[in-house]
Write a structure and sequence with these properties.
CATH superfamily of one domain: Tetratricopeptide repeat domain
Largest sheet: 2 strands, antiparallel
Low-confidence stretches: none
CATH class of one domain: Mainly Alpha
Oligomer: single chain
Bound molecules: zinc ion
Radius of gyration: 34 Å
Number of strands: 2
Strand content: under 5%
Distance between the termini: 97 Å
Number of helices: 20
């Protein structure tokens, strides 16, 4: 083959230049034509989302993706709204299709995976969703939104050890310190283990709770319970007594347990002493006064019981349990007029005031003291 002459080289260069010009012309045209797609619908959708108008956002997002099928974010949000509308299967389908698109940047891929995880959870495939969220969190350890979402799942699934760890991380990232709440997670872990009969493991968790917060009331209560269930009554009594020492105003929560256990040990007489000691520190503690009065009643010492119950009502005229007992005591003592007078008072007071614990988050009423709301699943919302 002969070498090319100067003219041939020049015309080749010219041809190449022309070709490049044509390519760049079409490319820029393609770009401008793409730019010509108005983002108006998408912007309106975003505004509606910010304003909380999901219905309008849904309409606008659909319009946006019809105009521009490359608007990945609009598709992503459309899927999320479908999930919110309990159409998890449709959301999953959209997000799955998105994940198959080529040339996705890493941030978009991450967002799509997050939406997929939430779709799985909404469809009842919690395991799949949670393990996907865990993978994503490994990639972006400081992601608070993901951490909080995972915490919610762990709480829902009674995975308290994991909940504890992630809560610790969340607090660290927020640079907050709340050992009290960490203690509650340990208590819930212990409760879950005790429910499965693993009392030793449960006790370890309760003790860890006390390590985080030595005033953690339920840790003492349930620690005693876990010893009691293993028939280690002395240790049970010790921890309940410790609660009274550490938090006297929450002591009433273990009165019944202490009375029962001391009775089984043949040491019921110690109970009156425990109550008197509390009253030495806090003479107007009505719950303790009432408990002591009840002991007189149980022992058949009607006169002392009436006197002590009357003392209770002098401090708190609406103390329903004392009213109820006093009515019975007066009746048995033949003082029906006095019994009747107290009965009239009972009608006027609201007994539920002393029988219910209210969730500060959702107003759920519980007759038992609880540290995890059965309705809204908020931890420590009963202010006990
Ligand atoms: Zn609640």
């Amino acid at each position: 083959m002969e070498p090319l002459n100067v003219n041939q080289v020049l015309s080749l260069i010219a041809a190449t230049l022309i070709l490049l010009l044509i390519i760049s012309f079409f490319w820029s045209k393609a770009r401008t034509s793409k730019k010509r797609i108005s983002p108006q619908k998408y912007i309106e959708a975003l505004k509606a989302l910010v304003a909380g108008d999901d219905n309008l956002a849904f309409v606008k997002l659909r319009e946006a993706v019809l105009e521009d099928t490359d608007n990945i974010d609009a598709y992503l949000k459309l899927g999320d709204l479908l999930r919110k509308r309990n159409k998890g299967d449709k959301a999953l389908e959209i997000h799955r299709q998105l994940s198959l698109r080529p040339n996705l940047d890493s941030v978009t891929k991450y967002d799509i995976q997050t939406s997929l995880a939430l779709d799985y959870i909404s469809l009842g495939h919690g395991d799949k969703g949670v393990s996907l969220l865990e993978e994503l969190l490994k990639e972006d350890k400081g992601n608070l939104g993901l951490s909080e979402r995972l915490l919610e799942e762990y709480e829902k699934n009674n995975e308290w050890e994991k909940a504890f760890e992630i809560k610790k991380q969340i607090l660290k990232h927020k640079q907050e310190k709340d050992d009290g709440v960490l203690a509650y997670y340990k208590v819930l872990e212990g409760n879950h283990k005790a429910e499965q009969g693993e009392y030793h493991q449960a006790r370890l968790a309760f003790k860890e709770a006390l390590h985080y917060d030595e005033t953690c009331v339920p840790a003492y209560i349930y620690l005693g319970d876990a010893y009691y269930l293993d028939r280690r009554l002395d240790e049970a009594v010790d921890f309940w007594k410790k609660l009274i020492a550490v938090k006297p105003d929450a002591g009433y929560l273990v009165f019944e347990r202490l009375e029962k256990t001391l009775f089984e040990k043949g040491k019921f007489q110690d109970m009156a002493e425990i109550y008197r000691n509390i009253l030495k520190e806090n003479p107007k503690d009505v719950k303790t006064m009432y408990a002591l009065a009840s002991i007189y009643e149980k022992k058949g010492n009607v006169k002392a019981a009436i006197e002590a119950m009357t003392d209770v009502l002098e401090i708190d005229a609406d103390f329903y349990p004392a009213m109820k007992d006093l009515i019975n005591l007066y009746r048995h003592n033949g003082q029906t007029d006095k019994a009747l007078r107290i009965s009239q008072q009972v009608v006027e007071c609201i007994p539920s005031k002393y029988e219910n614990y209210t969730c500060s988050n959702c107003n759920y009423l519980s007759s038992e003291p609880v540290w995890l709301c059965p309705q809204c699943r908020k931890v420590n919302s009963f202010n006990i």
